Amino acid sequence: MNSTEGPDFYIPMSNATGLVRSPHEYPQYYLAEPWVFSFLTIYMFFLILVGIPVNLFTLCVTVLHKNLRTPIYYMVVNMTMADLIVIVVSFPFTMHAAMHGYFVRGMVGCNFEGFFTVHGIQISLWSLVVLSVERFMVSCRPGIDIRFRRRFIVKGIGFSWLMAFSCSLPPLFEWSRYIPEGLQCSCGVDYYTLKPDIYNESFINYMFTVHFIIPLTVISLCFGRLLCMVNNDAISKNEQDASCLTVLLILGFFICWLPYASFGWHIFSNQGSAFSPIAMTLTSFFAKSSVLFIPLICICMDKQLRQCMVITLCLGKNPFEGKVGDSKTSDSSSGSAAPA
Ligand SMILES: *C/C=C(C)/C=C\C=C(C)\C=C\C1=C(C)CCCC1(C)C
Ligand SMILES: *[C@@H]1O[C@H](CO)[C@@H](O)[C@H](O)[C@H]1NC(C)=O
Ligand SMILES: *[C@@H]1O[C@H](CO)[C@@H](O)[C@H](O)[C@H]1NC(C)=O
Q1: What intrachain disulfides are recorded (predicted)?
Q2: 42, 118, 291, 308: which has the highest count of C-beta atoms within 10 A?
Q3: pLDDT tens-digit profile of 156-176?
Q4: Which residue's CA lies nearest to atom 18 of ligand 1?
Q5: Residues 119-137 pLDDT 10s
Q6: What's the DSSP call for residue 321?
């Protein structure tokens, strides 16, 4: 046996030594040294501390500037909102658990943490799908009506929430389940057991097909077209920049999530084999850093958004003097929206 199973946990360590304890009741310091848990606590604290202001600032600037009312920035609003939900609602649970070395809040906390993490991340993933399709349409018909594109994106936002719910809700209703993973201080879905009574196998297959392979395929089909739009002088500079930003957001997302997704799939398809709990936790906590990459990519790579940020930070005065078309929209009220 490579593992110890309980009714609501699966620990990747044999209980031959008699050390293994339920992660809902006892610290898991036999899985890793206490300093590893301290490190995870500090890391989560860092993500919360940086993630909230950076996402909030990006969200406020994007909402406040009228010249940012183009489809891609609608999606930026949707994705930063999803990030904020994950950071504010689910990260404090993870940090608290890492601080104590086990899931202090029991199954309720685990469900809460798992649900909001999966939900938020799925919103970002499906937003990127909708965005890729929208970019693809623009590349086919550059003159396409902006009102049509806006309606498409608004429907796409609704679609992203719907798809996210269809991935995050089932484990709460006994189609699979949320379960502590790795060092037992964060929760993911159950890759570890087949559990026929909760149809676990079918859920994991469904999740990886519908919520990973299909979005990945759609994005890949559009990706070549997106790359062609970057630096293509046949289309307007703004559309080139939007495609460039989309490409970077897609790369950021998959860099964050591919290690975790492949590890999860590996565990699922090799039921019962030994794996390192620390490696599992590393990929999962690395994936959590994806809440930072959307605003950071926007700030570092998108000139238009960065200029609007500077205007907001300068309390509405435009230091570029006319380089950004619509500076009237950034009156003094937008300055007060910037966090101190
Ligand atoms: C820290 C908590 C984590 C990483 C919780 C769980 C995450 C999942 C069950 C993720 C599933 C997936 C998503 C959201 C998007 C990429 C593919 C995926 C199926 C691995
Ligand atoms: C592991 O073994 C010890 C000693 O036999 C026992 O007290 C403990 O409950 C076991 N752990 C689990 C999770 O079953
Ligand atoms: C334990 O893990 C090893 C290596 O991953 C594997 O070969 C073995 O079959 C596993 N044992 C059980 C009982 O699954």
Answers
A1: 110-187
A2: 291
A3: 999 999 999 999 999 999 999
A4: 261
A5: 999 999 999 999 999 999 9
A6: S
